[in-house]
Design goal:
Strand order of the largest sheet: 2-3-1-4
Distance between the termini: 14 Å
Low-confidence stretches: 1-5
Number of helices: 2
CATH topology: Alpha-Beta Plaits
CATH superfamily: ACT domain
Number of domains: 1
Strand content: 25-35%
Number of strands: 4
Mean pLDDT: 92
CATH class: Alpha Beta
Largest sheet: 4 strands, antiparallel
Helix content: 25-40%
Shape: globular
Structural class: alpha+beta
CATH architecture: 2-Layer Sandwich
Length: 91
């Protein structure tokens, strides 16, 4: 799958499987549970995986793969993920 940001002008064909790369504070042990609650409340199931930890150990990445039926769903969940406490940013 080609990685294209949700705000890009490149065309995505839906339904699409999207893999978020979510950078979080490494010391925040509860952030993964909060992210899971947000995705579940949105009505989606997800595949979760741990990504890399920064060289200084301050940040880590959580990978979240979700199927979307429309661009609006993708953008709405992206906004909700970005607002989760402990999330620095999501790609």
């Amino acid at each position: 799958m080609k990685n294209v940001s949700a705000s890009s002008n490149e065309e995505l064909h839906f339904p699409v499987e999207w893999c978020y790369r979510i950078v979080v504070a490494a010391a925040d042990d509860a952030v993964a549970a909060r992210l899971g609650e947000v995705v579940e409340a949105f009505g989606k199931s997800a595949k979760w995986a741990d990504g890399l930890t920064s060289s200084g150990g301050k940040y880590r990445t959580i990978l979240c793969t979700v199927w979307f039926d429309s661009r609006q769903e993708l953008e709405d969940l992206s906004e909700r993920i970005a607002k989760v406490p402990g999330v620095k940013f999501a790609l």
